[in-house]
Write a structure and sequence with these properties.
about 290 residues, alpha/beta, Indigoidine synthase fold, about 45% helix, about 15% strand
């Protein structure tokens, strides 16, 4: 059920550096047609750091680990959003399945990949327990021995509650040269991290020690190089619009992102593209260090 691309398979067999990348960003994170270039740019940054990119998705009844450019173009907005629970169904039903962070982590665990790059992870939705929505990303991270490099938690979520839950789950939250968890578009204002690291090598050493002590996943938060500190009111507007439109569950994130991109005049979209690439580069450096 899992097909690993030749380049990825050779790197893993030889103890090389590999970084897993999700496909939900490609299918649902950007306007139609733009996500593919974001995915390809992420792969270029992983390679520039000396690692091999392994973009994950479901195609033609198989979980693919490592995609060609032509395969990546198949992850259009109508692709099914695939978390850990959905992998088997998408495979059996031969759906085009765009993997979330949680879905990608599940595949990475099966393939033996220890580093994943993304924009931001899912978590506890605002207003919990109404709706009673917590992303599967957190549970999968708690049981997968991997480093997830992101710009923190998606800012449309309840970030303090997500940080508390990560502590409960035993997931170290590391800050890359920062003392607080980045807030996706904003660099500051989040809850304190459990430890600060200054280099990719230090993050890799911490991950290795965590795994030796029986731990699983770690979150490495990297602040965006050019943060947007004025987006919070727009996020509130987007969430209110989603509620009014009856949007819920997995559909909330793509709806809110589209709203932000449109109402900010493209500022959030450009920031999102930049931070995804920056995270991919750091993830590649961590993978090389590991």
């Amino acid at each position: 059920m899992i097909r690993v691309a030749g380049e990825v398979r050779e790197a893993l067999a030889g103890g090389g550096a590999v970084v897993a990348l999700e496909t939900t960003l490609v299918a649902h994170g950007f306007p139609p047609g733009e996500g593919v270039e974001v995915g390809l740019e992420s792969e270029r940054h992983v390679r520039a750091a000396g690692a091999v990119p392994a973009t994950v998705g479901v195609l033609d009844g198989e979980v693919r680990v490592g995609l060609t450019e032509d395969e990546l173009t198949r992850f259009a907005p109508d692709a099914r959003k695939v978390g850990p629970r959905d992998l088997a169904a998408a495979t059996v039903q031969r759906a085009v399945g765009a993997t979330t962070v949680g879905g990608t982590l599940a595949v990475a665990r099966a393939a033996g990949i220890r580093v994943l790059a993304t924009g931001g992870i899912g978590g506890v939705h605002r207003g919990f327990p109404h709706p009673p929505d917590i992303s599967a990303d957190l549970g999968q991270l708690a049981r997968t021995p991997a480093v997830v490099v992101s710009a923190g938690v998606k800012s449309l979520l309840d970030v303090p509650a997500t940080a508390e839950l990560l502590e409960t789950l035993g997931v170290p939250v590391l800050g890359f040269r920062v003392d607080t968890l980045p807030l996706f578009y904003a660099a500051a204002g989040g809850p304190p991290v459990s430890a600060r690291v200054e280099t990719a090598e230090e993050a890799a050493r911490m991950a290795a020690a965590h795994w030796k002590l029986g731990g699983a996943g770690l979150l490495l938060g990297r602040p965006p190089d050019e943060p947007l500190d004025d987006v919070e009111p727009l996020i509130e507007e987007a969430l209110a619009a989603a509620a009014t439109a009856g949007v819920s569950g997995q559909a909330v994130t793509p709806y809110v992102l589209a709203y932000l991109h449109r109402e900010s005049g493209g500022r959030t979209e450009n920031a999102n593209k930049a931070l995804v690439a920056q995270n991919a580069r750091l993830a590649g450096e961590v993978a090389v260090a590991l």
